[in-house]
Amino acid sequence: MMLKHVERLARFMAVLGGIVLTLLVILTCLSVLGRGLNTFGHSAFLTSLSESAAHALIASGVGPITGDFELVEAGIAFAIFAFLPYAQLHHAHATVDIFAASFPHWFNRFLIVFWEFVLSAIILLLTWRLFAGMQGKMSNGEITFLLQFPVWWAYAASFVAAVTASIVAIYCAIARILDVVTGGSHLPHSEGAHH
């Protein structure tokens, strides 16, 4: 029952992260296209073909999207933390198992539980530091250079995703212990998992 709620929460954050990432890709493409058209409008090649077309293109105001780098920076940070809960729940993080095949089964299970706790501790530490960073940015009133939006907004969005990752990480750490103790399965089966 609890797994269903945790999985729903992780999936929601992953979908939200995917939507943000898709919007960032569209934003970047439009900005690059605008920058390219602006450069083309100022080019000697277009001017030699048609001065009126060059002036019309320049006069249209086409160019890069203002603050695209600021939006991409904030959005990517959020997306990373938004994908973290789903990856954690499905044991989809990159692993190096060069020696694991030679270890006894009980030792591999111990390693999985150990690294689950280590990763959970790291996620909790990151969440705490994001919160501290958000408070710092709120208190000093720092804003972005071009768009002039408060920097703490990006920290807050990432913090919400990191809190979700923390909830999922704590669940996964407890579920791994329960799996070892009861011999059951409290986590979804995935290709990357070692069962």
Order of helices and strands: HHHHHH
Determine the number of helices (DSSP H or I, runs of at least 4 residues). Answer: 6
Contiguous runs where pLDDT drops below 50 for at least 5 residues = 191-195
Helix content: over 70%
Structural class: mainly alpha
Describe the oligomeric state of these chains in a short phrase: single chain
Round the mean pLDDT to the nearest integer and report it.
91
* Most strands sheet: none
Number of domains: 1
Radius of gyration: 23 Å
Shape: elongated
Q: How much strand?
A: under 5%
Q: Distance N terminus to C terminus?
A: 21 Å
* Count of individual beta strands: 0
Write the layout of secondary structure elements.
Blueprint: H1 2-41, H2 44-49, H3 51-59, H4 68-89, H5 105-140, H6 152-182
Helix pairs in contact: 1-3, 1-4, 1-6, 4-6, 5-6
Transmembrane segments: 12-33, 71-89, 110-131, 151-174
Membrane topology: Multi-pass membrane protein
GO cellular component, one term: plasma membrane
From the structure above, extract its key features.
single chain, mainly alpha, 6 helices, about 200 residues, disordered C terminus
In short:
Helix content is 74%, strand content 0%.
Task: Write a structural description.
The chain has one domain (2-182). The chain is built from 6 helices and no strands. It has helices at 2-41, 44-49, 51-59, 68-89, 105-140, 152-182. The chain is elongated.
